[in-house]
Amino acid sequence: MTLFLFYAIVVVLGVLSMGFQMLASRLLSPHYGSTIVEWVWLISTFLAAFSTGSMLGGWISNVPVARRQRLQVATAAIGVAALAVTAFYSTPMLDWLELKFIPDVSQMNDQSAAGMNEALLVSCLGLFFVPVTALSSFGPQCVGWLAARGTPSGQASGVVYAVSTLGNIAGVMLTVFYLIPHYRVSHLMYGWLAVAALSLTALILLLRRPTPPSSQ
Q1: Per-residue DSSP letters for the chain?
Q2: Distance between CA 135 and CA 53 in Å, rounded?
Q3: What is the rounded distance in angstroms from the CA atom of residue 210 to the CA atom of residue 106?
Q4: For residue 158, is it within any domain?
Q5: Distance CA 184, CA 9 (A)
Q6: What is the tally of structural domains in the chain?
Q7: Which residues contact 73 (CB under 8 A, 6 or more apart)?
Q8: What local confidence, expressed as pLDDT, does residue 108 receive?
Q9: pLDDT tens-digit readout, 164-211
Q10: How far apart are CA 66 and CA 121, in angstroms?
Q11: Is residue 215's pLDDT more than 50?
Q12: How much is the mean pLDDT over the chain?
């Protein structure tokens, strides 16, 4: 039962991560259009967040237990808070950034193109980088949790990231083909926030469970 819950949470986190990228594109498109330039900044931001989160999670995995538990709570709280900012304030923030960097979209020139790149950079970093980094930081910690229960470290890494990737695929498909066509993006963001808070709370409680003596 514990392993089932563990893998279910890993899948949910995978759904949240890549599904969030699809929602992010819908948040940006009314302001910057749906262009390849937008996707370059969006994909680059998410990849940078995945990389940063993996390094952060690897470091957290190796600190003493008491400090690790505090860092897990802090990371989850920061991620949920950042996701709340995106859910509740993304529209006014994007409106302000659009006016600041691209005052006249109707007259596109080299200066306004540069302004769009700057606006996309600030938008992606400000709205998406922190929550995705926080979510990604739990991947290495999940690997460590599974390895501590007797699974060889290489196998634990492969299984966790394979299951997470299945969640990524499900997140893209579910978000694009069902959720976005049927629900407002703002409402979906509230759902993302609630699910992230619940799943991270459940994962932190699971990671705190003592290692069974037989697997030590």
Answers
A1: -HHHHHHHHHHHHHHHHHHHHHHHHHHHHHHH-S-HHHHHHHHHHHHHHHHHHHHHHHHHHTS-HHHHHHHHHHHHHHHHHHHHHHHHHHHHHHHHHHHHH-S-TTS--HHHHHHHHHHHHHHHIIIIIHHHHHHHTHHHHHHHHHHTTT--HHHHHHHHHHHHHHHHHHHHHHIIIIIHHHS-HHHHHHHHHHHHHHHHHHHHHHHTSPPPGGG-
A2: 7
A3: 60
A4: yes
A5: 25
A6: 1
A7: 204
A8: 52
A9: 999 999 999 999 999 999 999 999 999 999 999 999 999 999 999 877
A10: 37
A11: no
A12: 91
Q: Domain residues for 111? A: 2-209
Residue 110 in tokens? 């080299």
Q: What is the pLDDT of residue 109?
A: 52
pLDDT digits (tens, 9 = 90+) for 163-176: 999 999 999 999 99
> Residue 213 has what pLDDT?
64
Q: Is residue 10 part of a domain?
A: yes
In a domain, 216, yes or no: no
Residue 214 lies in a domain: no
The CATH code of the domain that includes 181 is: 1.20.1250
Tokens of 14: 């995978």
Helix/strand/coil (H/E/C) assignment for every residue in 145-203: HHHCCCCCHHHHHHHHHHHHHHHHHHHHHHHHHHHHHHCCHHHHHHHHHHHHHHHHHHH
